[in-house]
């Protein structure tokens, strides 16, 4: 019998597998980056999207959207920090992408780790 976490992971993998290429491969790569960067986060479906939470019963902290553009977003649940620098008091919460290169992969990992810490 599968645990709740295993069922949730299966649902996320299934959701990703139903996406059309090349997005399916990109989202799968981002999923792998997220679970590697923050292995304590639990994949689950959140409002129909792949998402990642501290447990199967807590709100999602990070979501992956496959709309007109691919989007990595921080939900309203984690504490936000002002960006500083040229962005001053703005608090980044979403990033759009079409592909994932080495620099983007590192940035996604940083973003995900900042939500967990």
TrEMBL record:
It comes from the Bacteria. Pfam families: DUF1801. Residues 23-114 form the YdhG-like domain. This is YdhG-like domain-containing protein. It comes from Nesterenkonia lutea. The lineage of its organism: Bacteria, Bacillati, Actinomycetota, Actinomycetes, Micrococcales.
């Amino acid at each position: 019998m599968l645990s709740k976490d295993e069922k949730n992971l299966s649902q996320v993998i299934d959701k990703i597998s139903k996406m059309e290429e090349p997005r399916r491969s990109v989202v799968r790569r981002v999923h792998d980056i997220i679970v590697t960067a923050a292995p304590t986060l639990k994949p689950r479906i959140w409002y129909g999207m792949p998402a990642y939470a501290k447990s199967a019963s807590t709100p999602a902290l990070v979501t992956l959207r496959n709309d007109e553009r691919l989007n990595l977003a921080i939900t309203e649940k984690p504490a936000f920090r002002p960006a500083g620098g040229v962005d001053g008091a703005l608090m980044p919460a979403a990033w759009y992408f079409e592909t994932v290169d080495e620099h983007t992969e590192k940035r996604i990992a940083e973003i995900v780790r900042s939500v967990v810490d």
